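Dear colleagues,

As part of the handover before I leave the project, I'm documenting each prediction I ran so the next person doesn't have to rerun anything. This entry is a single chain, and its sequence is reproduced below.
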Amino acid sequence: MIDHFAYGWWTPAIAYVLSVTGSFIGLRFALLSRDADGAGRWLWLTLSAACLGGTAIWSMHFVAMMGFRVQGAPIRYDTTLTILSGLLAIGVMFVALTLATTRPTKPWIISGGLIAGTGVVGMHYMGMASMNVHGHLHHDPVYVGAACVIAVSAATTALWFALNVRRASYSLLAALLMGIAVSAMHYTGMFGMSFTAAEHVPLTPPPGANTSDLLLPLITGLFVFLMVCSLFLLLNAGEDNKSRHRDRNNVG
């Protein structure tokens, strides 16, 4: 028996908040990249990709997986595949953001959305492949297709907001919607999964890291990363306010 909410609604709620936070900061960094040149532009794009791909999507997935249980079947994670799935999410978001900000036209935004959405789905199922369990996991193609549609739609919407929205309140609204879309994509894929136990189950657990060993450093690292990114945003906002104040004084 599969249980997606072993700890009740705590895990999806925390995963959603994490996704919203990463989306908001990532969208604000993408906005900064539009107005920057040279190395500064690439810095903001990299931070945006890390927040959107690494926090809003990849980390949301694994925090949500804390509530995933298969009755009678201990789960372990392949650390290498887990890390690679995160790098995939960050990499495709970087490519998509670069395309969309370099050529901010509708065809390129759609192309970027397709690339990012495909990468998000790839990250999800690579993350699922990183699970070691005494048995076989099966994925319903209908649910896989639905997850793909949600992922591409969410990624395209995020890119559009990154290029067309400047007010922080609108970025927050976009982040709230993005969090819903990412969570919907994740659980759509999860609900289409079934499990067949192995005929001969070993007494020892499968190889790999257990959930707490994998997620404790992940959550700690994410907290520090988001704090640093928030500080960057606050410092940049302060510099912008000082610059606008000086411009008004010069005009006066």
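The chain has a mean pLDDT of 85. The longest strand covers residues 135-139.

All the best with the project,
I.
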